[in-house]
Design brief:
8-stranded parallel β-sheet; globular
């Protein structure tokens, strides 16, 4: 699959943009395990043009993570154009426009998935951002606003006509948020539309190597994007790449191997922020990891783990898990 001149190889697997998740350390970790392309957390165009430091920090990308996309969102043409030009100066490989975030503070104000209720404005923003920058522009969106307004098949053609280089589709409506099963049938319909010639990347409910392969085989997408399935489990990319290449599952590693990766994430988070903020940030990964699922009577250990305020305290809890439960 190629996005413009960027060759991601056959059946690429991408790390989806996720707020408070896909910071630079997590992107590098996923890259290490085989993610073919990674995306930043989404960046508010309004905050960016106001030069909010916390927002500007999200533009930091490294050579080791390329190809990397910076994702922006907003609801005004001028602000999005100005923000796109600022992002271009950070030298990402791709600029992605977020028309899919369903959370109330974004979609409820007309940005993100809220744009699915104002398609003319969505297209106007896309058209103007493409014209404003010299880097590749892509879009990520959803099937539509709700079950009665699944507009993605027609919308995909309209976005393509705006000049985007690829389209990522989350297989849910905004109304669904992240509930229920993602519907890949409409993603497949977009991909199989003979009028579409840009790459189509599917997203939603990809939490295993088998599911990823099924999405490629059944729906014919050019790429698959993994989001929540990677939180607390960056090694999923290695599992998926192995299965796609050989049809064989990656041999299971000792429990301590996975535990060490989570500890590395803790240290990287603390190094990037500080001990207090770093641990607060990484709790989401620890809470979501599949590593501890199924462990008997784990509730109290889980509570203690998520309440830990210092690295030493947290590591003592993590190190005790194999001997206590396995």
């Amino acid at each position: 699959m190629k996005i413009g001149s960027i060759d991601l190889g056959e059946r690429p697997v991408l790390l989806a943009p996720m707020e408070d998740v896909t910071d630079i350390s997590f992107r590098l970790m996923c890259k290490r395990f085989g993610a073919d392309m990674v995306y930043t957390e989404f960046v508010s165009s309004d905050a960016l043009i106001r030069h909010v430091n916390k927002t500007k920090e999200k533009l930091n990308v490294s050579e080791e993570e390329r190809p990397v996309a910076i994702q922006i969102y907003g609801k005004e043409v001028e602000a999005m154009v100005e923000a796109a030009r600022i992002c271009e100066e950070a030298r990402p490989d791709v600029l992605d426009i977020n028309f899919g975030c369903p959370v109330k503070k974004v979609a409820g104000k007309g940005a993100g998935a809220g744009m699915l209720r104002n398609i003319p404005l969505m297209l106007d923003i896309t058209r103007n951002v493409v014209k404003a920058v010299n880097i590749l522009v892509t879009v990520k969106t959803r099937l539509g606003w709700d079950a009665d307004n699944k507009v993605i098949v027609e919308l995909a053609e309209q976005l393509q006509d705006c000049g985007i280089a690829a389209l990522s589709i989350h297989g849910r409506t905004r109304a669904q948020m992240y509930t229920g099963e993602a519907d890949w049938t409409l993603i497949g319909e977009v991909k199989n539309n003979p009028r579409m010639h840009i790459p189509i990347i599917g997203n939603g409910n990809v939490t295993s190597a088998e599911k990823c392969k099924e999405c490629f085989d059944r729906y014919g997408v050019d790429g698959v994007m993994i989001g929540r399935g990677s939180i607390g489990r960056p090694w999923i990319f290695k599992e998926v790449k192995q299965y796609l290449a050989t049809g064989q599952f990656l041999p299971e590693q000792p429990f301590e191997w996975y535990l060490d990766i989570l500890k590395q994430q803790v240290l990287q988070s603390v190094e990037r922020l500080d001990e207090r903020r770093g641990i607060l940030h990484i709790r989401r990964h620890l809470a979501a990891t599949s590593l501890f699922k199924g462990l008997p009577d784990f509730k109290q250990t889980r509570i203690a783990m998520l309440r830990a305020n210092h690295v030493e305290e947290l590591f003592e809890i993590l190190d005790s898990i194999p001997s206590k439960y396995l």
